[in-house]
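Q: My labmate handed me this sequence with no annotations at all. I'd like to see what the chain might look like in three dimensions before we decide whether it's worth expressing. Could you predict it?
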Amino acid sequence: MHLYSYLLQMMELELKKLEDTIKSIHEEMFYLREREEQMQNINRQTNSRMGWLSFLSLGICLSVAGLQLWHLKTFFERKKLL
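A: Here is what I predict for the chain of 82 residues:
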């Protein structure tokens, strides 16, 4: 009977260790899910900002091109080449 009791205690100890390990893994999985969600939100925000920045850059380039055309036109009109 003593051996049986000892084996039972050893199994109980191993099961508690396994339970602790499972709890630890479970908590880590929840933490990783939260981090993944945060990273996805940051990724979406960054993509959105890059989209707006590209449109802003395009607008600035077109504005500068328009100013260059206007400047060249007025320059040639003053020189009476146009």
